[in-house]
Design a protein that fits this description.
The chain is mainly β and about 100 residues long. It has a single domain, classed as 3-layer Sandwich (Rieske Iron-sulfur Protein). It is about 0% helix and about 40% strand. It has no helices and nine strands. A hairpin with an 8-residue loop joins strand 2 and strand 3. It is globular. The model has no long low-confidence stretch (mean pLDDT about 95).
């Protein structure tokens, strides 16, 4: 069973920019962005080490961690440096102008 939570509205995000939103009960913020017209969401922490990803660089669909330069494809979650490392991606549901994500 999924835990679906409202994270933000469409007016809160901009294509090609990382935006972080606090979610009650979640330690790290949820990152939401738009890439190629698709709304994408992921945890705000790097799976390599506990580094905040919202300060990272987003180029196309590639999110680069500011801590150690690990690069993640936001469409797949795959890491360019380590095939065993994956950035979790949250399923997104749009309800009108509201962005909801499934955290579980």
């Amino acid at each position: 069973m999924a835990l679906r939570v409202r994270v933000c509205s469409m007016r809160d995000i901009v294509e090609g920019e990382l935006r972080a939103f606090a979610v009650r009960g979640v330690t790290w913020p949820v990152i939401v962005t738009i890439v190629d017209g698709e709304v994408l969401a992921c945890p705000g922490v790097c799976p390599h080490e506990d580094v905040a990803l919202w300060d990272g660089d987003l180029t196309g669909a590639t999110l680069t961690c500011p801590g150690h330069g690990y690069r993640f494809d936001l469409h797949t979650g795959r890491c360019a440096h380590d095939p065993g490392l994956e950035l979790r991606r949250y399923p997104v549901t749009l309800v009108g102008d509201e962005i909801w994500v499934d955290l579980l």
